[in-house]
Structures are given as C-alpha cells and as structure tokens.
Write a structure and sequence with these properties.
Number of helices: 6
Order of helices and strands: EHEHEHEHHEEH
Largest sheet: 6 strands, mixed
Structural class: alpha/beta
Strand order of the largest sheet: 1-2-3-4-5-6
Distance between the termini: 32 Å
Radius of gyration: 21 Å
Number of domains: 1
Strand content: 15-25%
Number of strands: 6
C-alpha cells in the first residue's frame, strides 16, 4: 500500500478494527513522494495504528522512493535526496521497531525489510557528469560530480549501518518489561510458521522457543 498524509488515521478507522483478532500480518509499504520530510510519521504512527490488534507476528517491507532523475534536478538535489533517505532509513531502523514493541503487547516476533538505494542506482549521475556529449558547462559538470561523490558517501553510510536488509526480532517479555533480540532469519521464519499454525495457542505456543543459539551474531 502507498502511504501519504492522513492515511494512517483512515486505516485506524477502517481496516484495523476488523483485524483485531488476527495473530499474523504482512505489510508492504510504499513511501510516496508526497510523504515529504514527514518520514518520521511512518515510525511513529504505524505502531499506533496497529495498537488495537493482537498480533503475535508482523512482517513489514518498506520500499523507499526512487531518487530523482539527475538530468532534471537542480544543483545539489541528488545529495539532498540521499541525506533525506538516510534520515528516513534511520527512523525505520531505530524508531519503528521500538514503537512496535511498546504498542503491541502481544507481539513476539517481527521482521522489517528495508529497500534502500544501491550505489548502482546513482551510477547514472556519474555517467551524465562524465559524458562528453553532455550539454552542461564545466561548472555544472563539476557540481554533478560533487553531488555524486556526496551521494555515494551517504549510501555507504546506510550500507554500513544496515548489516542485513531483512532483520528479524524476537521480543522477550517478562512481567511488564520487553526486550528486543535480533535473531537469525531461519529462526524468525520458524517462529512465524509456529504462530500461523491452525492449532497455535497464544498462551503456550512459543514456550521454550527462544534460546541464546537463536541470537543473531555478525
């Protein structure tokens, strides 16, 4: 689904009340251009929208918007877009998981998959900057090259901070406290399959599942 301004409120009123009893949910979110600089809305509002459910498993795929065509962009826009992407990524990486755990007391395992821009997606900018038939003057070409260099630095920062585009988390709940533990993908998928089994028991179905060997280590 595509998400723009006000969409989460509409979802709270229309869809979520009908999903209150489900235990497993898959969401594929396309962050639209008109989401603008309010990318923190995703990390802050989605947990609130899901709070009325009783999910035990949740999988979220977040698809980011495509960088603008550098041919039609103003000076500096390429690096600004990448900086915006870094901020958007940071919110979905750090703020969203904590918000989900706090808002959904029944949540035990969840996955967040990030679609982030690769170095190859911005290679066209360098191609344009270096192409001998480019109509831009030398100053404009230098600006494009600098933008491409800055963009590459931002993308490398994202890559270094994102060890896995798909990350699985186990939520260990004791009393009123909750601890997030990153687990291996295979273990997350195993827990998801247990939860989706027709005979799954919310109270005891995951007893004994978690152990230290399931903790993800780089």
């Amino acid at each position: 689904m595509g998400l723009g301004h006000g969409d989460f409120k509409r979802l709270e009123r229309s869809i979520w009340p009908h999903l209150s009893g489900i235990r497993s949910l898959y969401l594929s979110l396309q962050v639209l251009d008109d989401f603008g600089s309010r990318h923190e809305r995703l990390a802050n509002s989605l947990p609130t929208a899901l709070a009325e459910t009783s999910l035990v498993h949740l999988s979220i795929s977040i698809h980011m918007r495509t960088p603008p065509d550098p041919v039609d962009s103003d000076r500096g826009i390429l690096s600004e877009e990448c900086a915006e992407e870094l901020s958007r990524f940071t919110h979905s990486r750090d703020v969203l998981p904590r918000g989900l755990v706090a808002a959904l007391p029944t949540l035990r395992v969840f996955m967040i998959r990030h679609t982030v821009h690769t170095r190859e997606e911005l290679a066209e900018a360098e191609h344009i900057a270096d192409h001998e038939d480019n109509d831009a003057n030398e100053d404009e070409l230098d600006c494009l090259r600098r933008d491409a260099d800055r963009a590459e630095l931002v993308l490398r920062q994202i890559a270094s901070e994102l060890p896995r585009p798909e990350r699985w988390w186990w939520v260990e709940r004791t009393g009123g406290s909750a601890e997030m533990v990153e687990i291996w993908r295979e273990d997350g998928e195993e827990a998801r399959d247990i939860i989706e089994d027709r005979d799954f028991n919310r109270e005891t179905g995951l007893d004994g599942f978690f152990s230290r060997k399931r903790v993800y280590e780089q």
